[in-house]
Write a structure and sequence with these properties.
Chain A is an alpha+beta fold. Chain A is built from eight helices and 20 strands. Chain A folds into two domains: 7-232, 3-Layer(aba) Sandwich (Rossmann fold), CATH 3.40.50; 245-362, Nucleic acid-binding proteins (OB fold (Dihydrolipoamide Acetyltransferase, E2P), Beta Barrel), CATH 2.40.50.140. By secondary structure, chain B is mainly alpha-helical. Chain B has 13 helices and four strands. The two termini of chain B are 45 Å apart. The chains are: A alpha+beta, B mainly alpha. Chains A and B meet through β6 and α2 of A and α8 and α9 of B.
Amino acid sequence: MRKQQELAIEVRSVGRVYGDGAGQVTALSNIFLNIRQNEFFTLLGPSGCGKTTLLRLIAGFDFPTAGEILLYGEDIAPLPPFKRPVNTVFQNYALFPHMTVAQNIGFGLEMLGRPKQEITTRVDEMLALVHMEPMRNRKVMQISGGQQQRVALARALAPKPKVLLLDEPLSALDYKLRKEMQVELKRVQAETGITFIFVTHDQEEALAMSDRIAVMSHGEVRQVGAPWEIYDRPAERFVADFIGETNFLTADVISIDGQRTRVRLSNGTTLDATYPSDLTPEGKVTIVIRPEHVQLAAPSAGAILGGQIEDLTYLGTDTHIRVRLPDTSLFTIRQQNSRIGPIGFAAGDPVSLTISEGAAQILKD
Amino acid sequence: MTERTRQAASAAQRQETINRWLLSTPALALIAIASVGPLLIVLLYSVLAPGSYGDVKWEFSGQGWFNVFFSRDIFDDTVSLADAHVTILWRSAKLAIITTVLCLIVGFPTAYFIASRAPHNRSIWLFLITIPFWTNMLIRGFAIQEMIRNEGLANTILIKLGIISAPIQMLYTDFAILLGMVYVHLPLMVLPLYASLEKLDFRLVEAGYDLYATRLKVLWRIIIPLVKPGIIAGSILVFIPALSSYVIPRILGGGKNLMVGNLIELQFGQGRNWPLGAALSITLVIIVLFAMLYYVKNAGKTGGGHA
């Protein structure tokens, strides 16, 4: 798939602890990450999970209390930010209000002592890249939020960093602009071929943009993988719960056969489930099934699950149906409205549920 | 609109204008009584003749203004430039400028230090900055005198430590005046600088470091341009009172190292030449005015407003 699999950033056993004694707070503990060259890599997690701290460690605004951070094999952890070939797009953009758009974009190159001619050429290139040529001589206070976002991106890219760090850069934009900038960021990344490390708490954004995602919580990396792996093959309950909607069921392991495990649900029916490679399922396990991997059908004897429709929510593109199972728990189903007209079920109807092949996954607990 | 309603409307508008003026009367009266009035009196006195025992004679005389810049020899009536006055004005301006620059150099790191503390600790530091204001300036002046005089604290310590063998003459020198003036005016520099620095977005500083600016470059290219309004305000607040300082040069400069404030006082006191004193005062006002206009214009040119 990729020609180059060289590692841009290696995070090795990094920890960050604030304070000491009783007031000690662990922001990050024992983080290992390998970020490949030319990759769009996302750190995803709820606020306070340590994703921004990790980004600040890579940028050099903060220093790890343990471990090392390698940039193309060289330990950069002790270097101050102005000695790292890494640039940041800040959450609030942090554009210099006393400078014009062009001066902002050229600032990094100017500080590197590049000749004037080169700076002008590079600034023009960057303005073209983010479609901001007409704003060249505006003060940054005179342009809109979306435009400031583009300038912040151009400013961080102008010195040709080896890695670009983006700290929730889209969070201040409204929905439509955010969608637009998502596409824009992907395009810029493809055009420049620079490794992007993107921090967000928005799972949809992460799924839409990333080559790979690291899901974080409480200062630890929970799972690293491609968007589909994170979504369809969550390794643990936190990941499954944080990303998208999920149904959790408890089951007993009956037998293991290669990558598949046969499990028995509480109602006595059995089905196949996949499991993470670093897990040997046994005894009682939790399995996870995404709402869109389940189909509704009229009640039948051989169905894996059966129940009664609690309520339906019509959302245009699809309908959410909650089914009350015999053990009184609720099971969520998302059915695409591919047919014109009403869905054909009503609250109170008894239904059976069929689960798509390979949709069930056993979690690490 | 009928003629009648138009008339009514314009009458209402007139009434509105009158009301506005009436409402501003207290403020205008205060400005007239406290600011414009005294200045006019000083201006008037400057063109009157001096009385024999102070005061003024109510007759026009250009003598006061003449004496600001020129002096007439008492024996042969030859007119020459009033060296003493020009020298003192120049000395005052020089000392005031040096005081302002020193206050800036000392005050900036102080204000930066306070602004970078945790919010709940800042008020304690600000409080400490204002403590010297609680003591009378005269007493603070004498306190400095006590520290730097030949048998004072500084010399005693230096001699005891064996760094010097004989006391250094510090009191009654320009050094003493500068020391006193910087000490007295420092809070006036720190407070407006703090107000600007406190609003400074420190993420901009991080952005500077991120874009390969060293610490010095960040200070020069990002922090200073952004806190320029504070630097201007602080400099004005220090420069004006420093230029017309009276107590500090009197106590720490002895009788010889006069500043323009002392010169003016001399004319109203022992000199018994009120018109000259008044003319010198107005001269000082004009110098300050032009200095400020020049400073603000030039400082504002390169400055970026950090709204």
